């Protein structure tokens, strides 16, 4: 650690070193969790990752101090996000639950030095996801808020959140204009791997490769479940039963604190009920079904709601409202050449032939999806794994054009909310690419928007800066855009 006299590191539990050593021993009991669908990627699928945590010479004074090298100097207080100074020592730390209940969405952009991530064994699918998340302003702000406000004791019930706070603290904010083009050395986020093992996120067969978008979904759901666990914990330490299903986790019951907060912070509880009759245009009625889904800051950042309408001649329209964390869109049709085409197809009516209505009559039903609530950060998955009788399962190496700005027109918005809403506007913030001709394996890289008119390209430890927007949007010979990340304006 650097000897900065203006910095005081607060830590409430001096037994943390022993606890940390115990956690390391616990983590070592878990198997290596290898990704799915590629026996060709892993050169040594029968061996565990050889990742060693450096020995700790001194008891840690903060959770970030576990990770810093001796020559690390914390950012000065002139930056937007900084280590707590001595003036912060007198401030009373909150509990994580208190912070989550009162938390409100905000986006603080912090310019920090880029760092590459070492690939310790075909871990590129994780590296690109971690880079995309650290450059997501909403996500970065949430983790820094937790780190600055909450008194932590290395609570093993939320290993993902703790490890990712450690991860974002590895990125040093830029303090002057001379550091704009500087990179810090690459590193291995060992503690994130350990937390993933603890959560058994990679509990899959050996020798298989994980898909980057699947990993992204597992990671986000895992963080959501951890925060939901905290929100459902009572003052006596008991936890109310809750199904850990990610964004699809229903609200079984609310603690008194959450009930009292519901009136002032509707981010915690969505305004939905189980079943009701909805009256639309020309007094046509429909039966709407929805579950009260548990909300956390993670779902408030990355989650949205989709409305699905099934219109059946001779029956009332059936309406279902469900949460989602990404839009997976079909790009296989020859008529789809750009992102607007693909989204238009997703929100177009679909005819279902041979449907039997409530009277037992076979009719043609119509199903259509609408965006009921747009997420603040929208993940769009371009479905490139397709099946045809001739080729079987294969990768679709087709260029789909996309732009910097994305507009969700009112016609794609849920009908009950359409009159009170306007078009939803997004700006491209990251692109995740897949390299290779096969669906069963390959390599992953990503482009991220660091600041206006500056893009970075990450390929594990390699970083290309000063990338132009034109290069990000153009067709590439060696890679295909796979996940597009848009942030609401």
Automatic annotation (TrEMBL):
Q: What is its EC number?
A: 3.4.19.12
Name the segments for region: Disordered: 255-276
Membrane-spanning parts: none
**What CDD domains would the database entry show?**
Peptidase_C19
Q: What class of enzyme is it?
A: hydrolase
Q: Where's the USP domain?
A: 115-489
Polar residues bias locations: 262-276
GO CC annotation, single = nucleus
- Which Gene Ontology molecular-function terms are recorded? cysteine-type deubiquitinase activity
Keywords, sorted A to Z: Hydrolase, Protease, Thiol protease, Ubl conjugation pathway
Q: Which family does it belong to?
A: Belongs to the peptidase C19 family.
Please report the name of this protein according to its UniProt entry.
Ubiquitin carboxyl-terminal hydrolase
Q: Which organism is it from?
A: Smittium culicis
Taxonomy of the source species: Eukaryota, Fungi, Fungi incertae sedis, Zoopagomycota, Kickxellomycotina
């Amino acid at each position: 650690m650097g000897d900065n006299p203006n910095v005081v590191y607060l830590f409430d539990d001096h037994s943390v070193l022993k606890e940390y050593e115990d956690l390391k021993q616990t983590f070592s009991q878990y198997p290596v969790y290898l990704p799915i669908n590629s026996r060709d990627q892993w050169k040594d699928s029968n061996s565990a990752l050889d990742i060693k945590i450096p020995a700790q010479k001194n008891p840690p004074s903060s959770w970030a101090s576990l990770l810093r090298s001796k020559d690390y100097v914390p950012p000065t207080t002139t930056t937007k996000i900084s280590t707590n100074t001595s003036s912060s020592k007198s401030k009373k730390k909150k509990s994580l639950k208190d912070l989550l209940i009162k938390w409100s969405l905000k986006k603080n952009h912090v310019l920090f030095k880029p760092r590459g991530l070492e690939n310790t064994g075909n871990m590129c699918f994780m590296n690109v996801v971690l880079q995309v998340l650290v450059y997501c302003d909403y996500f970065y702000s949430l983790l820094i808020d937790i780190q600055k406000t909450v008194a932590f004791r290395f609570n093993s019930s939320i290993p993902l959140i703790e490890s990712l706070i450690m991860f974002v603290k590895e990125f040093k904010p830029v303090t002057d204009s001379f550091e704009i083009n500087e990179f810090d050395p690459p590193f291995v986020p060992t503690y994130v791997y350990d937390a993933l093992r603890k959560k058994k996120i990679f509990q899959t067969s050996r020798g298989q490769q994980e898909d980057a978008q699947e990993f992204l979904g597992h990671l986000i759901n895992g963080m959501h479940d951890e925060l939901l666990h905290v929100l459902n914990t009572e003052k006596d330490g008991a936890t109310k039963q809750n199904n850990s299903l990610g964004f699809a986790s229903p609200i079984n019951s609310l603690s008194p604190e959450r009930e009292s907060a519901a009136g002032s912070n509707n981010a915690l509880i969505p305004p939905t009920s189980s079943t009701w009759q909805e009256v639309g245009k020309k007094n046509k009625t429909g039966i709407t079904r929805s579950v009260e889904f548990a909300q956390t800051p993670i779902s408030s950042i990355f989650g949205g709601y989709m409305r699905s309408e099934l219109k059946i001649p001779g029956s009332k329209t059936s309406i279902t409202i469900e949460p989602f964390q990404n839009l997976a869109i079909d790009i296989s049709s020859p008529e789809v050449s750009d992102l607007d085409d693909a989204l238009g197809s997703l929100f177009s009516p679909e005819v279902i032939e041979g449907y039997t209505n409530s009277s037992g009559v076979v009719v043609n039903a119509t199903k259509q999806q609408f965006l009921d609530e747009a997420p603040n950060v929208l993940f769009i998955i371009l479905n490139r794994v397709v099946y045809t009788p001739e080729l079987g399962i294969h990768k679709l190496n087709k260029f789909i054009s996309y732009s910097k700005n994305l507009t969700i027109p009112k016609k794609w918005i849920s009908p009950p909310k359409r009159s009170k809403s306007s078009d939803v506007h997004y700006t491209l913030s990251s692109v995740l690419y897949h390299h290779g001709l096969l669906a069963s394996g390959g390599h992953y890289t990503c482009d991220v928007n660091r600041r206006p008119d500056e893009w970075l390209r990450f390929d594990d430890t390699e970083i290309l800066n000063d990338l132009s927007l034109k290069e990000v949007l153009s067709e590439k010979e060696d890679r295909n855009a796979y996940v597009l990340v848009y942030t609401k304006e």
